[in-house]
Design a protein that fits this description.
The chain has helices at 13-21, 25-28, 32-60, 62-90, 96-99. With 100 residues, it is an all-alpha fold. It starts with 12 loop residues before the first helix and ends with a helix.
């Protein structure tokens, strides 16, 4: 198996970062027991979406799936950016300086 085409990362540093970022449960409004449920739900959802992405990549091909994902990201970013301009224009703020 080619090491460049591996779908599952060897280390889970991104998961460790999430666990460390939630070390103050009082700031989030969770008790220590509730916090473990939140982290477990995150890990289960992440694993499920990783499997789904792998299956979709097998069916449609990795390049096509990457292109579709990038197009969705680009479209969502465009909509979010334009929504800010539309909001500013609707309340009467001059947006001409922002666009230039």
């Amino acid at each position: 198996m080619d090491h460049r085409r591996r779908a599952v990362p060897r280390d889970h540093g991104h998961l460790d970062h999430r666990c460390r970022s939630a070390r103050h449960p009082a700031a989030l409004g969770f008790s220590q027991a509730d916090l473990s449920w939140v982290l477990n739900a995150y890990v289960i959802a992440f694993g499920g979406l990783l499997l789904l992405g792998g299956k979709l990549s097998d069916v449609y091909g990795p390049r096509r799936l990457f292109s579709v994902g990038f197009a969705l990201l680009l479209g969502g970013s465009l909509v979010a950016g334009l929504a800010n301009l539309v909001l500013l224009a609707s309340i009467g703020v001059d947006c001409t300086d922002v666009v230039r």
